[in-house]
Amino acid sequence: MPVGVAVSDSSAAKGEETPTSDIDLALIGDRRSGDITTVLTQLERQTGREINATMYTRKEWAERISSESHFEATLLREPKLLLMGDEEQLKRVSRDDSDEAPTHITE
Length: 107
Known about the structure:
Mean pLDDT: 77
Number of strands: 4
Radius of gyration: 14 Å
Largest sheet: 4 strands, mixed
Low-confidence stretches: 101-107
Shape: globular
């Protein structure tokens, strides 16, 4: 499955963005998506900002949520930008520990 949900812990979502703000991404989907690194490198060049991306399978994401890991719990709790998927899909993958593709992906 390609990336199904992409979440940004963005200072823009919190109203705290500056020209040098970095961008933290949580990408939930298929780790084999090798093109992601290339795309992120291009985005860094275009935006002039550092992009920190963490890839999770659906199972890894759900495990991190259930263990109340700080970064992931903060992403769910605080303002965020959903770059792919929607809030309902994010909640669904947070509860579902299978690595099966979601039945609907909003792009």
